[in-house]
Every structure is written in structure tokens, then in C-alpha cells.
Amino acid sequence: MIKNRRNLIIGIAIAIFVIAGALFFYKEPQKTERVILNTPSKKLERVELSSESFPVYSYDAQQLRDPFASLIVKREERRKGVSPLESYDIEELKLTGVAWDKKGGMALIQAPDGRFYIVRENDRIGFTGGRITKILKDTVEVKENNKKTKYMKLRAEEGG
């Protein structure tokens, strides 16, 4: 009996708090009146704008990236038997040196992870299936599967 009475008192107290809170936060809607102003309208003047008053801009989006393309690029899964240089894009690799021996030209390429690799002509490079076609004095020419040719240039180190 005491337990039922205590539950009843708690229920009534909660109801009082809910009602008090609702009354505290209740706002009466504001009444708005429509006012129509009878003012004489001003005469509108026509203004001619010339191109001299505003600068002319041109926008060429050919060289810009697609704004709807994802900034996060998923790499293709690395296949078994693929060299480490085939798991990077050609733009991520850096040509750091070129040398020649009896067999022909060699290039020293640095991967983004900081490791260095020696490559020769006809070696595969890049995850798009590129193949080194020429090694020149300061350039490596790479031909990709999609018949596009890319060039890696040797740059002088800054500083020191």
C-alpha cells in the first residue's frame, strides 16, 4: 500500500513538472498586421552599362580537375609478381639520376616511400601498365597502355 502511494506521489510530481515546463516555454504567437503604404512610386531610370565599367573575365575549365570527382583515389590492388614501381602512379615517382654502362642507360627512381629503384629500358613502371621506352640524359620516356606518353624529368636539388 505504501509502495502504491509513493508511486502515485512521484507520478503526480512528474506531471506537475511537465505542465510547469510546458507553461514556462510556451510562447504566444505574435499577431501581425498587414499595412499597405500608399506612397507615390519613383520613376525608374534606365542605366546603360558598358564593358569599360566592369572587368571582363574568362573561365577555362579544361586544365582544372573535375569538382565532382572524389579527392580520395583508390589504388588498384597489387597483383602478385608485380614490381614495387608498378604499385605507384608515374606522377608519384621521382627521377633522381641517370647513368650509362655497357648494356645501355639506367635510371634511378625514388618511390614515395623513400626507396630507390634502378630501372632500364623496357622495364614496367606505374600501375597503368607503363613501359620505359627511352632513357635520355635528363629524361625518362614512359609509354602507357592507353598509348599515352609521359616524361619524367631530372630536377636539380634545391638548397645546400
Characterization of the model:
This protein has 160 residues and is α+β, with helices and mostly antiparallel strands. It has one domain: SH3 type barrels, CATH 2.30.30.830. Helix content is 15%, strand content 24%. It has one helix at residues 2-25, and strands at 94-101, 104-110, 116-120, 124-125, 130-135, 139-143, 149-153. The strands form two sheets. Strands 4-5-6-7 form a four-stranded antiparallel β-sheet, with no helix packed on it. It is elongated, with a radius of gyration of 37 Å. The mean pLDDT is 79.
CATH class call: Mainly Beta
Q: Name the helix and strand elements from N-terminus to C-terminus, one letter apiece.
A: HEEEEEEE
**Reported CATH architecture:** Roll
Mean pLDDT score: 79
How would you summarize this macromolecular structure in one to three sentences?
By secondary structure, the chain is of the alpha+beta class.
Give the secondary structure arrangement, pairings included:
Elements: H1 2-25, E1 94-101, E2 104-110, E3 116-120, E4 124-125, E5 130-135, E6 139-143, E7 149-153
Antiparallel strand pairs: 1-2, 2-3, 4-5, 5-6, 6-7
Essential attributes:
15% helix; alpha+beta; 160 residues; SH3 type barrels; 1 helix
